Amino acid sequence: MSLPKVDYLSDTWKDGLFTNKVVFCTGGAGTICSAQVRALVHLGANACIVGRNVEKTEAAARDIATARSGSKVIGIGAVDVRQIESLQNAVDRCVQKLGGIDFVIAGAAGNFLASINQLSPNAFKSVMDIDVLGSYNTLKTTLPYLVESANKHKVDKESLKPSPAGTGGRIIFVSATLHYRTMPFQTHVSVAKAGVDALSHSVALEFGPLGVTSNIIAPGPIASTEGMERLLPSDALESYTRSQPLGRFGSVRDIADATVYLFADTGSYVSGQTLVVDGASWRMSAPGAAYGKLGYPDFLLSGEAVPNVTGQKKSKL
C-alpha cells in the first residue's frame, strides 16, 4: 500500500522535477533517508539504496517504488560502508542498472547513548568508521559519476540560467547538531559528525570548480525515527517536547523537503553549507539526554552506567 504523499513531501514541488535522474543513498532503509529518497522518486527520480540488512533494504526499496508508477528503485543489502570494495560493487551495480548517478545522499550512521567511561575504544572506532570513513567511501566511489553529471547539467555562466536537462552532480551528507554545543553521552557521535561536516566543506571547495555541490542536512528531533526512540528517554518525552521552540518535533517530510530544495534548481548556488532542520532546537540550553532519568549533571555524578547500551565490550581504558 502506497504511503500518502503528505507523509513525506509537501505540495510545493512540481511532479517530474527529477525525471531521468538517479539518486544513490547509503542508509536508505532508515526512517529519514527512506523519506528523502521517496520524495525524489515521487518527483521523477530512480534510486538505489544500500544497507547492511538485506531483507530490510530490499523491502524498503519495494516500498519506496510505490511512490511513483513506473519508478525503478534498487535495494542492495549486505553493503558495509566501511569497506570500499563493498560500496564500489553497489555503485557499479547502480550505474549498470540505472545508467548513472546524479545525486548522492550519504546517510549511513551509527549511534547509541554511552558515557566516556562506558565507551570502549572499539565502540568509538566503530562509530567513526561508519560515519566518517563510510561517508568518505561513499564520496570516493560516487565522485566520478557526480562529476560526469555536473558536467551535463551546468548552469550557463553568462545568463545564469539552469540547464534545460535539470540538475545533477550534488551530494548531501546527513549530519546532526549534537556537536554544535556538545551533549553528554554522545561524545562518539559528536566527534564523528564534526568530521563529516569538515568532509563536506572540503568537497565543496575541491569539486566546486567541476560543478559539484556538497552540502549538509542536520536534522534535529524528528518524530517517529529510530534515533529519537534510541536517544530520548521515554520518561522525558513530554517535557522535552514542551521545551522545543516550536513546541513540537519535526517530521521526515521536513528533511525530505530540504533535500529537494538542495537538489533542485533552488539549490544551484548553495554549496559548502549546513542546512539545519530542527526548529531552533539546538539553540536551547538543555540537550535531550539531560532530561528524565539521565538528568545532567546528577546522573553523571551518581557513577551509574547508561542503561540498555548494547554491544558493549569491557575495556581496560
UniProtKB/TrEMBL annotation:
CDD domains, A to Z: TER_DECR_SDR_a
Under what name is this protein listed?
A: 2,4-dienoyl-CoA reductase [(3E)-enoyl-CoA-producing]
**Organism in which the protein naturally occurs:** Aspergillus tanneri
Q: What class of enzyme is it?
A: oxidoreductase
Q: Which GO terms describe its molecular function?
A: 2,4-dienoyl-CoA reductase (NADPH) activity
**Record flagged with keyword NADP:** yes
Kindly give the Pfam families that the UniProt entry links to this protein.
adh_short_C2
Q: Which Gene3D superfamilies match?
A: NAD(P)-binding Rossmann-like Domain
One of the protein's GO biological processes: fatty acid catabolic process
Superkingdom assignment: Eukaryota
